[in-house]
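Sanity check

After download, print the first record. It should look like this:
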Amino acid sequence: MILRSKDMKVLVHNEFLGGKGQLTNTHFLNNENACGSGRLFVKSMLTPGSSIGYHTHKGDFENYYILSGKALVNDNGTDYILEPGDSILCRNGDSHSIENIGDTNLEYIALILFDKDNA
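Expected structure tokens:
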């Protein structure tokens, strides 16, 4: 099955989960084709100064893989800087946030998968 970029769903969110600025998600896999494995499969983009607010995962876990830009992430109360090639895993029950602290767009892959053992 091929999904062309022109056919992918793109959603723009303002102040997502209490964050700042604008988040754009390009959905490269929809839930119907994910075989019940998760609920989010996107390339995310945060404009400079934009963020996703601090939030907790319940029944699922999330992974970010940084493609470009510079991110400030909060992983359970501790701040880290992530750059291209870096990753963060937020497990079921853990909390995190992400902010673009660079002067270019921050792009990353975001996957939210179900934690079937601890739902």
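If your output differs, re-run the checksum step. Summary of this record's structure: Residues 5-114 form a domain with the Jelly Rolls fold (CATH 2.60.120.10).
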